[in-house]
Amino acid sequence: WKHSTSWAFFGGYRGLTLVLTFLSYTSYHLSRKPISIVKSQLHLNCSALGPNPHNDSNSTTWCSWAPFDGDNYKQLFGALDNAFLVAYAIGMFISGIFGERLPLRYYLSGGMVLSGLFTALFGLGYFWDIHVLWYFIIVQVCNGLVQTTGWPAVVACVGNWFGKGKRGLIMGIWNSHTSVGNILGSLIAGAWVSSAWGLSFVVPGIIIAVVGIICFFFLVEYPEDVDCNPPLHHVSGRFPRGLEKDPEAVISNEGPLSLSGQSSVDHSKSPKEPAEEPEAISFFGALRIPGVVEFSLCLLFAKLVSYTFLYWLPLYIVNVAHFGAKEAGDLSTLFDVGGILGGIFAGLISDYTGGRATTCCVMLVVAAPMLFLYNHVGQNGIGISVAMLIICGALVNGPYALITTAVSADLGTHESLKGNAKALSTVTAIIDGTGSVGAALGPLLAGLISPTGWNNVFYMLIAADVLACLVALRILYKSIPHRLQTSALTWLFPATSSSLRFSSHDLCWEEL
Fold first, then answer.
1. How confident is the model over 391-405, as pLDDT tens digits?
2. Start and end of every Major facilitator superfamily (MFS) profile domain (predicted)?
3. pLDDT in tens, 23-80
């Protein structure tokens, strides 16, 4: 009974952590989406609205919002996007360092309240009748910086509560918060975009601030905070049959234990007793963790492809398939649907096989020809277009979701850290920050290349996909010596090979 009660409390807190972090990052994306909805309102086709009420016959943009009423409005919108993305990419590299030196609950909640403030300030420009470009640029830069508090904090919280056994599947499902936030953000912003577009920012700003306050009061950062021992991030020793795939299945009255008779944590100290606080890892110390640099570069190219689709897919469908703007927007959401399925599939397969890098590599290899086919035959019919968008979304966003969630958590709790889980936030920030560089670079390159033809844009995307695959292959190549060593020892000593220990470096590559 005591064992069942302990597990019930542990599972209840884990469920609460999943729900709160899911709502947190849903609200982050919810607050990022309004800018893409409001753009069409800032520069309108005024002739369709009737005569000019200001009796200025020379003005054809009387209904647009200055300074976006000029012929250079596309460049100004691009400046708004890049202001956010570049600030986000730069801020992400330092965000994790602060996250490890501050309580995660305070860091996440404070970032969400500030994100709500800067999101609302953009919309208040409507009510305050502000027509200065630099006001909107500065707000976007500040918002991009404070929004970097979100991803390292939520991944660190989830990683603290979930061991490696089912981390890929759980985080694959949990990662759907991105698409859920985008959908809700579109609906909320669309409700006020025609009447008072400022509310399209103010309401999402209030929502993220309220969710941040809820997290402040109810989010539990570490299992130790509620007298629970952390889950197994690494397991060594012999397992009973059927437990190899789920090290979290082994729970004692005091917490999860390895079956070799040793606890995954030091149980000589009770959770209630004060323990020595581990030091936060440095930026360069996190870079030395095996796999961090390689997976960061892999994510850079994968996120480049994903964000290019995010910003340019509706326009591509309008220009190539000749759909209307609304139909193209609706059709482009299928790419996100495929991304949800791809993230879940990638997490499930990587959990079953134990190979994160292998899963990424296979999906990236298949993604390259699928991108080529979509560009050439994807617009031949609505059925083909729907199927190709879902497939491409799954193959492109599957590795992206896996690296930003399960892989980041694996590396942040790597065995070489000797139980110091405080590296999780910094590792997550380094990986996602590098990926954010690709997120900013992809749409920029697409804008420069698209005047030469959409074929060239897809060649750029295929090249980025191939580069991501080459980086993943390098990870697999490094794991070959250990895999050969493991296979040989298993063949020579089948009775004892399951209890053999390897160096932390080799174990990292084997696990990934």
1. 999 999 888 888 877
2. 17-480
3. 999 999 899 888 877 877 787 767 656 666 665 555 666 677 888 887 777 778 878 8
Which residues are CB-contacts of 51 (< 8 A; sequence separation ≥ 6)? none
Q: Which of 436, 409, 438, 439 is nearest to 423 (CA)?
A: 409
Hey, what amino acid is at 252?
A: S
> In this structure, what token pair is assigned to residue 425?
């936030």
- Are the beta carbons of 489 and 500 closer than 8 angstroms? yes
What are the beta bridge partners of residue 263? 257
Rg, C-alpha atoms of the chain: 24
DSSP class of 252: E
- 3-state secondary structure string, 43-67? CCCHHHHCCCCCCCCCCCCCCCCCC
CA 100/CA 280 separation, integer angstroms = 6
Q: Going along 155-282, which residue ranges are E strands? A: 251-252, 255-256
Residue 254, pLDDT > 50, answer no
Residues 6+ apart with CB under 8 A from 227: 271, 272
Structure tokens at 491: 């063949």
Structure tokens at 95: 């965000």
- Tell the residue number behind the tokens 């090249």, with chain if given: 463
pLDDT at 501: 43
489 burial class (0-12, 13-18, 19+ CB within 10 angstroms)?
Answer: middle
Strand partners, 256: 251
Closest CA to 88 of 404, 426, 440, 408: 440
298 contact partners, CB below 8 Å, separation of at least 6: 360, 399, 403, 468, 471, 472, 475
19: CB partners within 8 A, 6+ apart: none
Q: Is the pLDDT of residue 312 over 80?
A: no
Token code pair at residue 47: 């002739």
Q: For 369-420, how does the pLDDT look when each residue is reduced to its tens digit (9 = 90+)?
A: 999 999 888 777 788 888 999 999 999 988 888 887 777 666 655 555 544 5
Tokens of 382: 């609505």
Read off φ and ψ for residue 255, nearest 5 degrees.
Answer: 140, -175
Closest CA to 172 of 184, 183, 162: 162
- Assigned token pair, 91: 């801020």
DSSP 230: P
Closest residue by Cα to residue 35 from 119, 113, 112: 119
70-to-42, 48, 60, 77, 424 alpha-carbon distances in Å: 11, 18, 10, 11, 46
Q: Which of 303, 402, 297, 406 is nearest to 360 (CA)?
A: 402
Under 8 Å between Cβ of 107 and 151: no
Structure letter (DSSP) for residue 271: T
Residue of 258, 250, 255, 247 lying closest to 227 (CA atoms): 255
Alpha carbon distance 43, 48 (integer Å): 13
Q: pTM for the whole thing? A: 0.70
Instruction: Tell me the C-alpha to C-alpha distance, in Å, between residue 319 and each of 186, 312, 313, 365.
Output: 22, 11, 10, 28
Is the distance from CB of 367 to CB of 465 less than 8 angstroms? Answer: yes
